[in-house]
Design brief:
By secondary structure, this protein is an all-alpha fold. Helix content is about 80%, strand content about 0%. The chain has a two-stranded antiparallel ribbon with strand order 1-2.
Length: about 425
């Protein structure tokens, strides 16, 4: 059967309304997401007495759930009449897990609390992955390509300001309690749950046109055949390979940072907040600049530069366990986090066909999700055989390999002609 295709354009007033509501939605969502991601490792290690393996699973299991959510969501989204309604429903389910986390120290036996928290955070990413996938597909329709760099820069800047406060305030408050007390964590999880009501309110108020007069063939579900077919798209394939390599190097170090900061450097909740605040402060200053630079120099090239900044982070980190020094490192690296996280999605939207945007986004998220599941386990396994410093340096080397691949993709046109000419001579 034919399905309806959104070939219309939104009016400038509707675009402005959607941008404003999306920014407010992102601000409210950031509170809970930041609290959970910033303090989950400390929550598991200290009040719940978890292990290094629990911290690694905090990174791996959510990625596994995201893969499952993306596979299910891509096929589901191809049949729904409203991406917005789908996004609202999945977001509501995901945010219920904030309340469940808050209840964990009260209702779960002591020896099962750490494992339960890890499982809840992992399961939260199943509806969370559905929410993220549907939002990405939805926002690609609601915001025209000419507005995206400015919109994402502004939205990410405001979200990062809120993330800064959502890291700083809990870190100070948690520091006032004994290290093994779960009370402050429970309180902030409840705050996250209540803020999710504001998030859902502004999400539901987006303007989405569902009724159109033009029809098209039913979108192809993301099965194995479609998965392989997407790999034949040359520009997308080159970007995907580079992103997979970079993310392998990036994510294999994620559990290492938590272990290094908490166990090797002795960071408390206040210092964890300081690391995140320093990182987020430079993100706030640079988000919009990355958008302007990408418009001027090309998204792929600026993405590679952002990746290069992230690639030096592991090497800088293991130089010292001095806590003020680690704050400075996070301050410097924050600018590159802003560039890479924003431009990776922007470039994905540039290289995929608009008519199959949802399935390509799903394809990309599944690929990166597989990396996100495997990479932290690789990082932890190498930690026991290589120790911390060589493990971190290996992470940096793999990241740089991904950066070189991104630079090749984003090289200027004037570099390509001599290369093609030389190839002809070699033939």
């Amino acid at each position: 059967m034919p399905s309806k295709l959104s070939l219309f354009t939104y009016t400038s007033e509707e675009v402005q309304l959607n941008e404003g509501r999306s920014i407010r939605n992102g601000i409210a969502a950031t509170v809970g997401i930041t609290i959970v991601t910033s303090f989950a490792a400390l929550f598991v290690l200290k009040p719940l007495h978890g292990s290094s393996e629990d911290v690694a699973l905090l990174n791996s299991l959510p990625a596994l759930m995201t893969i499952l959510a993306t596979i299910v969501g891509a096929n589901w989204l191809s049949r729904v009449h409203s991406k917005l309604r789908f996004c609202v429903t999945s977001t509501v389910v995901a945010r219920i897990f904030y309340a469940l986390l808050a209840l964990t120290p009260l209702v779960i036996p002591k020896d099962l609390m750490a494992g339960t928290a890890v499982v809840l955070i992992a399961l939260m990413n199943l509806p969370g992955g559905l929410s993220n996938l549907s939002w990405q597909a939805l926002i690609g329709e609601l915001i025209p390509s000419a507005r995206r760099a400015h919109f994402f820069g502004l939205r990410n800047r405001w979200m990062t300001i809120v993330a800064l406060l959502s890291t700083l305030i809990p870190g100070i408050v948690i520091q006032l309690f004994p290290a093994t007390s779960a009370i402050p964590y429970m309180g902030f999880f409840w705050l996250s749950f209540f803020m999710s009501a504001v998030e859902v309110y502004y999400l539901a108020r987006h303007i989405e046109h569902r009724e159109v007069s033009v029809t098209s063939p039913q979108p192809t579900p993301l099965g194995m055949r479609t998965f392989i077919r997407h790999l034949k798209h040359p520009t997308y394939r080159r970007f995907l390979v580079a992103a997979v390599v970079f993310n392998l190097g990036w994510q294999m170090a994620w559990p290492l940072y938590s272990l290094y900061q908490i166990r090797d450097a002795g960071a408390t909740a206040a210092w964890i907040s300081a690391f995140n605040v320093a990182n987020q402060f430079t993100q706030i200053l640079t988000f919009e600049r990355w958008g302007r630079w990408s418009e001027r120099h090309g998204t792929a090239l600026m993405l590679a530069i952002g990746g290069a900044g992230l690639a030096i982070n592991p090497a800088l980190t293991v130089i010292s366990t001095n806590l003020p020094y680690l704050v400075l490192v996070n301050f410097l690296v924050g600018a590159f986090v802003a560039g890479y996280t924003m431009l990776q999605f922007n470039y994905l939207l540039e290289v995929v066909p608009a008519t199959e945007r949802t399935s390509y986004i799903a394809h990309f998220n599944i690929s990166i999700g597989i990396v996100g599941f495997v990479a932290p386990q690789i990082g932890l396994w190498l930690l026991y055989s290589l120790t911390m410093t060589p493990d971190m340096l290996l992470s940096a080397a793999v990241r740089f390999l991904g950066v070189f691949m991104l630079l090749w993709i984003g090289r200027p046109e004037k570099w390509r002609r001599p290369i093609k000419w030389k190839m002809k001579l070699l033939r």
